[in-house]
Amino acid sequence: MANKSDYYLLSLLIPFFTAVAFLLHLTACTPMIKEVTAYPYTTIPGDALHTRIYTLKNGLTVYLSPDADEPRIYTSIAVRAGSKNDPAETTGLAHYLEHMLFKGTDKVGSLDYTREHTEIEKIITLYEEYRSTEDPEQRAAIYRDIDSISNAAAQFAVPNEYDKILNSIGAQGTNAYTWVEQTVYLNDIPSNKLEQWLTIEAERFRNPVMRLFHTELETVYEEKNMTMDSDSRKIWDNLFAGLFKKHTYGTQTTIGKAEHLKNPSIRNVMNYYRSYYVPNNMALCMAGDFDPDTTIRMIDEKFSVLQPKEVPHFTPPVEEPISSPTVVRVKGPESEELVIGFRFAGADSHDADCLTLIDKVLFNHTAGLIDLNLNQQQRVLDAGSMLVLMKDYSAHILSAKPREGQSLEEVSALLLEQLELLKKGEFPDWLLEAAINDLKIEQLKLYEHNRGRVEAFVDSFIWGMDWEHYSNQINRLRSITKEQLTDFAKKHYGSNFTAVYKEHGKEKSEGGIVKPPITPLKVNRDTLSVFAGELLAMPSKDTAPHFVDYRKDIAFHSINPNTPLHYLQNRENDLYSLYYVFDIGKNQSKKIELALDYLSYLGSSQLSPKEFSCELYKIGATFSAFTSENFVYLKLSGLHERFPEALQLLETLLSDTKADSEALDKLKAGILKERTDDKLSKRKILFEAMTSYGKYGPASPFTNVLEDSELKEITPDELIDEVKNLMQYRHRVLYYGPATATELSANLKRVRHYPQNPLNPPAADPFIELEQDGNTIYLVDYDMTQAEVIMLTRDDIYNPEQVPLIALFNEYYGGGMSSVVFQELREAKALAYSVLSVYRTPKQKDKHNYIFSYIGTQADKLPEALEGISELMDRLPESPELFLSAKNGILQKIATERLTRSEVLFNYEEAKRLGIDHDIRQDVFKGARTMTLDDVKAFHKSHFRNRNFVMLVLGKKEQLDLETLQKYGPIKELSLETIFGY
């Protein structure tokens, strides 16, 4: 399910794309100004993205990059306004406005705006009264009035109409994020619906209405609760508070203070909108299948309704130099971690170029100083380096987790030691060139997809960076010498850092936000605003779907009689990906994952582990292994011109592995520490350990690991034999790259000895999913603000004939922001930030389907949340309008989706595992066209009503209503040892 997410949280969960997206096109050229009718634009000769940059009369900046690979367009509308612009007395305002931009306007989402407006004005006044009142009884009385009038206003509103419209036209990934200096609105739309999308987006930004305010405010409260449960959030907030004593990067947070969220001002939100959401402070960024000349005229026609205005000027405070380390200690329930941050100049500076290279020299996952000296030698756990590039300042962050018995001070010394090596120039001369090649590869991968192109445009705009300068960074990096880099490091890395020591323990909370008395809003599902009706009636040219024809789209060859090759040629760029795929995995061997992990610390008789990593990085190649329950992938990827050398290196490692007892001892110790850490991770506990226990009981794929005693006894030879035995199993080779099939086959045969009589993989999966005899509640006690719940119901064995109806049912019932589950539990009742309920199909045939429901909510809302989910499982809300939206959405998405590149190969892999010989999307498209709401109702009745379930509850036991939980079934409290199996 897509959630409108806070960007600074996302930045903690995935690698910072700001560091990646900043690497752009190589050509150093002079921008050219061209004119098409009345629309002059800037372009850069040789730009691989064919970017056109327009500035319309009202000041709106438009970035266009045409790409006809598939009939879809990725879009972002970026506003130069984020949490750094929040008033100090109402932090979190930019983020809250982001949420409200999904609520519609006086035309979108309203059935009678004149009458609705009257009620909304009353609510606005009441909130001003509420925030200036201190007496608890008076505040409670005012809130009751807000709740009552909100229900009166809601009868004139259509909740989630924006989302419904976007879903109806086949949009995907409808979302938004707020961060320090930007708020960005995202959509991936069918190209034949471009006019409809532009129409609704121009309307969306014209006059947003603060409707359904108090329930959305509750959703933001829930998001705040999520951050209060996040150790990563504590690290982030304290690190930036240490680095930025004056700048709002550090003095306030994106989500805002709890006390400010408790006392909101709708007037302040609207004033913020009027100040910053003006066309001369916005950019519309698009990449995909469109004609730029036609498109820019359409954009101008639609968005000319927005009027320019002077934007408040933000003067960045000048930070004082950091002369000595700032050390901050925080505590949280998850494992220990150290993060060290240095402050630098902003993204559009020479600092940023030097930092980009330094980051790669330190950490590139293969041959950086941190990679070789810390991770490969296993001196710490999970060491890394990352950049955070922002407009006014930037941060370079080093991080690592301690090994067993290691202090955070020792971890700090090891990280800082790598900076000393950098300053002394103790890294090979070739590393700079290899790092730049690595950046080029990242750039090529980024620009293979329209989303990557658009993210680059957004960064360029938000940072106020000329596109030519942005695109020319690789050339600038080539001019930086090793001496210049070391001089920069000597000058900028010293005692001028902030270090956050995240320890395991309990820390005083900001204080939870108490559940307010909210009367569920009436949800007008079966109505449309006049605007929505007219927009959906707009004609558009149909797009014919294209399905993968495996026999035509994939070339099937044989390397030898026992080893098939599935081949697809890359005619787009110079990158290749090669996979060895084995139908044997962790379920069949407890040792295989450990053996492949061990392999990453080894070399051959000719090359030490360090030498092997360096040789691989020199030629722009990467090797990785992925282990699943029932299959293994070995992947080699990189630049085509060095493919033969990379293949030879890989095969040498696989066939001539040299044991290292010390490396294995360290690996064992690291695994034992990680097992302890996993028991502190609430995500690991709930979504892996508890979920697996709920499906299988104590003996499950998750617990199918070596006992601690077995782990300690295992030898290097056993693990090397495990890898060699793996290579004796029957497997297949997947390839997507520039080489011809003949060239590829010759290279593979030249370096590899394939067994004449390969072993067949085991025929059966050893684990059986449990039948559910009555309801069971499994509870794990964990120190947290929220309570998180998963409900599981085992259903029928997978049947591909059911897939079309399942797809349509999920779209209608619980798979997105316009679904009935989302509307009922989040929009109408404000019970959660994240909620979904779907009918999940397995990844392999002969496995069961499951009803999977999840909700994360305040502990004091748990009874209402469970009641809400249960009601929806017993009674399906009926809405012909919502069904039509779901149906149209599926048809549009499938009609405009194109599987490309290696996606084709993996689509075939997925089909074969499910016993299907064709692209299943073809069945879904055909079936959905003729299905009715009655089909969805019948599916719900036969699969959801009166079903037994396993309920998995993770929360602080003393805050949970156990009496309510017992109404759903007997409660069994589980220990971490029970669910983890060690």
UniProtKB/TrEMBL annotation:
GO terms for biological process: proteolysis. The keyword NAD does not apply. One of its GO terms (molecular function) is metalloendopeptidase activity. Residues 67-117, 597-692 form the Peptidase M16 N-terminal domain. Keywords: Hydrolase, Metal-binding, Metalloprotease, Protease, Zinc. The keyword Signal does not apply. InterPro entries: Metalloenz_LuxS/M16, Pept_M16_N, Pept_M16_Zn_BS, Peptidase_M16, Peptidase_M16_C. It holds the Pfam family Peptidase_M16_C. Residues 269-437, 749-878 form the Peptidase M16 C-terminal domain. Its cofactor is Zn(2+). Belongs to the peptidase M16 family. This is Insulinase family protein. It comes from Chlorobium phaeovibrioides.
